[in-house]
Predict the structure.
Amino acid sequence: MRADARRNYDKLVGAAREVFAAEGGGASMEAVARKAGVGVGTLYRHFPRRIDLVQAVYEDDVEELVETADRAVAELEPWPAVVAFLEAFVRYARTKRTFLNELREAFDKDPALKLRLRERIDEATELVVGRAQRAGAVRPDVEGADLTQLLGPMCTSPTLTDEQSVRLLPMILDGLRTRGDVG
Amino acid sequence: MRADARRNYDKLVGAAREVFAAEGGGASMEAVARKAGVGVGTLYRHFPRRIDLVQAVYEDDVEELVETADRAVAELEPWPAVVAFLEAFVRYARTKRTFLNELREAFDKDPALKLRLRERIDEATELVVGRAQRAGAVRPDVEGADLTQLLGPMCTSPTLTDEQSVRLLPMILDGLRTRGDVG
DNA sequence: TTGAAAAACGGAGGCTACCTCCGTATAGTA
DNA sequence: TACTATACGGAGGTAGCCTCCGTTTTTCAA
C-alpha cells in the first residue's frame, strides 16, 4: 500500500467515525469524503460499499479497545486497570448506538466477523480482569465475558441515558471488586 | 374518507406488505405504488414518510393476528385453537424479519405504539391459551405473554431457517400441552 | 538525480430514489 | 344533474450513490 493511500485510508476511517457518531450510520458518503478532505472516488476505491466503511470503523474501535487493555495492564495496578478498561469499554459500546443497524447488517452478512471481534474483546477483558482476580482485587466468581455481556447490551440500548451510564458503571465496579478492598 | 381513498389505502398497505416481504423494508416507494397500481402522489398523501407505511402494514398484521385468535376461539376446540393461533403467530413474526430495522425505527420514534400493539397481542394470546388452560388442555404454569416472548425472538432471529421453525413449533406445542392429553 | 511506470487521486456526471406540486378526474350531495 | 370537495397521478426538482477517466503523485531503476 502506497504511503498516500495509507494516509487517506486512515483519514477516511477517522472521518467516518466522527460523521457516523454525529449523523448516524446513514450519513452520506459525500459527507464522509468531505470531512476526510478527499474525493468520493477515493472513498469508494477504499470502501466499495457503505458496509465496508462501517466495518473498518468498527474493527478500528475494537483494536483501540484491545490496545487500551494492554496499556492498562502495562501501566496500572490491577484494580485501576479494570476501572480504566471498563470505562473505555462503555465509551466504545455507547458509540455503537449511532450505527447499530448498519453494524447488524454487517454481522448478518459476515457472521465470522462478529465472532472474531467478540473473541478479541473477550480476550482483552479476560487479560485485565483475570490479572485483577489473581491479585485478589476482583471477586473470583465472574468471567471477562460475563462483564461484556452485562455492559454491552446495557450500553447499546437506545433508552439508556448518559447519566444512567455514569451512575451504573461505578455501581457495577463496586459489585465487581473483592469485598473490603480499598482504593 | 372517500370510498376511492379507502380503496387505495387498502391497496397500498397490501402492496407494501408484499413488496417489503420480497425486497425488505428498504424497497422503493415507487415499487410499492406500482404494485398497488396507483401513482406515487397517492402513496405519499396517505403515507408521508416510509415509516408511516411500515407502521400501517404492521398494525394491519397485528389486527389480522387478533382476528385469527377470535376466530380460533369461536370455531375450534380449545387445543386446536392454540395450535392454529401459534402457527399464525409464527407466520406473523417471521414476516417481520424483512423489515425489522424499519420497525425498530418506528418503535424508537413512538414507544407507545410498541406497547399498545404488544398488549393487543398478549391479550389475544391469553384469550386462546387461557381458554385451553381452563379446559385442561394446556399446562397451567405458563402465561400467554411467556409464549410470545419465547416465539417472537426465535422467529425474528436472522439465523432461524424455515426448516427450524417448522421443527420447533411442534416441539414447543408438545411441551405446552397438558401431559397425557390426546389429539 | 531523473524519467517513466504504477498507483492513487478527485470530481464530473449518470443513475436512481425520494418527495412535491398542481392540473385533471371523480365521489358525494343537493 | 350540477357543483364542490376530495383524491388521483405522474412530471420534474433534489439529493445521494457510484463509476469512470484524465490528472497528479509516488516509487524505483538506471
Q: What stands out?
A: The mean pLDDT of chain B is 90. Residues 2, 4-5, 8, 33, 38-42, 45 of chain B lie near DNA strand D (CB under 10 Å from a C1'). DSSP finds nine helices and no strands in chain B.
